[in-house]
Amino acid sequence: MIRNLNQVNFCSYGSVLPERAHTSLPFSREDADLTALDSDCAPIYMTHSETWLSGSSGMAILSICARKDEYLHFYLDKPVSLKSGVQFALSAFMGSASVSLYAAEEKPADWLSDRTVAAGRP
């Protein structure tokens, strides 16, 4: 099941920023990494500092590791801030999409695995 983002169901992993934050993100879009996504692949990453995600084009799915190999799936229709140490994956809902990732650190997140979570996504 793909959930809608809200502060209650997402608070363990980070925070949902106000929808108006698309125009007032805590970083410049030029400083963010633009990541192209497709619906067939969702490589797994781990944040190593607070990381901001914002949809750029298309509809993206944010998959968060709730427990070992168990993921919660969210429509990334609002900007979010992920806490340090959160394991996540990104994929397009259908076709392709892109997401902006930003962290104050050099890299927003470390790649963990080519293994994807797409198979567990509805």
Task: Summarize, please.
With 122 residues, the chain is mainly beta.
In spatial order, strands of the major sheet run 1-7-6-9-4-11
Q: What is the overall number of helices?
A: 1
SS content category: mainly beta
Q: Characterize the largest beta sheet: strand count, sense, and whether it forms a barrel.
A: 6 strands, mixed
Strand content: over 45%
Query: How far is it from the N-terminal to the C-terminal residue, by CA?
Result: 6 Å
Account of the 3D structure:
The protein is built from one helix and eleven strands, in the order βαββββββββββ. The chain is globular, with a radius of gyration of 13 Å. It has 122 residues and is mainly beta. The chain is 3% helix and 51% strand. The chain has one helix at residues 7-10; strands at residues 2-3, 14-16, 33-38, 43-47, 51-57, 60-67, 70-75, 80-82, 87-92, 96-103, 109-116. The mean pLDDT is 82.
Keywords, separated by commas or semicolons:
6-stranded mixed sheet, mainly beta, 11 strands, 51% strand
Give a topology summary.
Blueprint: E1 2-3, H1 7-10, E2 14-16, E3 33-38, E4 43-47, E5 51-57, E6 60-67, E7 70-75, E8 80-82, E9 87-92, E10 96-103, E11 109-116
